[in-house]
C-alpha cells in the first residue's frame, strides 16, 4: 500500500478498500477491480473538488481554479506512484495509448444528496489521462456509479481498453 498525504491532511491510498454501503438506496458494490490485468489501470483517488470549486472566471475567461490544479497534481503523483510499482508499465502504456478506452468511476460520497455523480467526471478523467500521458479523446465508453461511504469518501477508477468492434 502506498499513500500520499494531501495538503488538507486527507490520505489518498492506492489500495482498494471496500465497505458495505450504509444505505439501501445505493446499488451494491461489485467485487474489487482485478489488479492483475496487464492492460488496465485501477486506482483509488480522493474525491475531486465540487464543480463550483473546479473552475474560476478571470477577466471573462473560464480557468481551472487552484483547488482544481492541486487535485490534478495530486492525482498525477498517485498515477506516477502506481506506474512505478507496475512491472509491465511499458506494455500497459503502449496499449492505453493505442486502443480506444473505457473508463469506470465509482464515487463514494459522504452523503447521497450533496453531490452529482457527473460533477467530478471531467476533472478526474483529465487528471488520470494527464498522469498517464494519454489523450482523453481515446475514451469512448464511460461508466459512473454513486455510492455512500461516510467514513471513507473516495473515487475508484479503472481505465482499460474498450470492447468495441
Give structural notes.
The chain is of the alpha+beta class and 165 residues long. It has one domain (3-15, 34-161): Holliday junction resolvase RusA (60s Ribosomal Protein L30, Chain: A). It contains 4 helices and 8 strands. Strand 6, helix 4 (121-132) and strand 7 form a beta-alpha-beta unit. Helix 2 crosses helix 4 (121-132). The longest helix has 20 residues, at 66-85. It is globular and about 40 Å long.
Q: Which helices and strands appear, and what pairs or packs with what?
A:
Blueprint: E1 3-5, E2 11-13, E3 41-45, H1 51-54, E4 55-58, E5 61-64, H2 66-85, H3 89-98, E6 101-109, H4 121-132, E7 139-148, E8 154-161
Parallel strand pairs: 6-7
Antiparallel strand pairs: 1-2, 3-8, 4-5, 6-8
Helix pairs in contact: 2-4
Brief overview, please?
The chain is an alpha+beta fold and 165 residues long.
What are the defining features of this structure?
60s Ribosomal Protein L30, Chain: A; 4 helices; 165 residues; alpha+beta; disordered N terminus
Strand content: 25-35%
Query: How many strands in all?
Result: 8
SSE pattern: EEEHEEHHEHEE
Principal-axis shape: globular
Low-confidence region ranges: 1-25, 29-36
The number of domains? 1
Main beta-sheet strand count, sense and barrel state = 4 strands, mixed
Helicity range? 25-40%
Number of helices: 4
**In which order are the strands of the major sheet placed?**
3-8-6-7
CATH architecture assignment? 2-Layer Sandwich
Structural class: alpha+beta
Distance between the termini: 36 Å
CATH class group? Alpha Beta
Could you tell me the mean pLDDT? 81
Amino acid at each position: 500500500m502506498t499513500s500520499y498525504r494531501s495538503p488538507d491532511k486527507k490520505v489518498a491510498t492506492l489500495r482498494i478498500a471496500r465497505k458495505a454501503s450504509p444505505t439501501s438506496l445505493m446499488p451494491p458494490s461489485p467485487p474489487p477491480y482485478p489488479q492483475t490485468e496487464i492492460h488496465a489501470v485501477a486506482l483509488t483517488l480522493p474525491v475531486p473538488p465540487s464543480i463550483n470549486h473546479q473552475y474560476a472566471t478571470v477577466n471573462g475567461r473560464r480557468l481551472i481554479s487552484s483547488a482544481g490544479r492541486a487535485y490534478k497534481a495530486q492525482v498525477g503523483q498517485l498515477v506516477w506512484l502506481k506506474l512505478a510499482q507496475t512491472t509491465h508499465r511499458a506494455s500497459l502504456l503502449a496499449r492505453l495509448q493505442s486502443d480506444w478506452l473505457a473508463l469506470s468511476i465509482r464515487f463514494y460520497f459522504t452523503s447521497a444528496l450533496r453531490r452529482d455523480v457527473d460533477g467530478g467526471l471531467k476533472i478526474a478523467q483529465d487528471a488520470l489521462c494527464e498522469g498517464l500521458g494519454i489523450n482523453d479523446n481515446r475514451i469512448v465508453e464511460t461508466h459512473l456509479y454513486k455510492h455512500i461511504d461516510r467514513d471513507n469518501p473516495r473515487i475508484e477508477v479503472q481505465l482499460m481498453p474498450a470492447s468495441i468492434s
